[in-house]
Design goal:
By secondary structure, the chain is an all-alpha fold. 44% of the residues lie in helices and 0% in strands.
């Protein structure tokens, strides 16, 4: 199982990538981004998202460039 810091940073990056791409950022979309483009175990991620939303510093704004971690397996991006 990933550490808390690894889970939060991966969720943050996937969420920020959705914002950069102009895609909806529902919990389902964020988890889909993580589990299909970053890591395949959804159960590891579900518990962290609600607590991240309670802290402004852990809520991404869409700043910066899209990460490479989630796109390595995606064609045509």
């Amino acid at each position: 199982m990933k550490s808390l810091s690894e889970r939060v940073s991966t969720l943050y990056s996937a969420w920020n990538d959705l914002l950069i791409g102009g895609k909806p950022c529902s919990d389902d979309n964020i988890l889909h981004e993580v589990t299909h483009n970053w890591h395949d175990s959804k159960s590891e991620w579900c518990s962290e998202l609600p607590s991240m939303k309670q802290h402004a510093i852990l809520t991404p704004t869409g700043f910066g460039k899209r990460t490479n971690g989630g796109t390595l397996r995606l064609p045509n991006i």
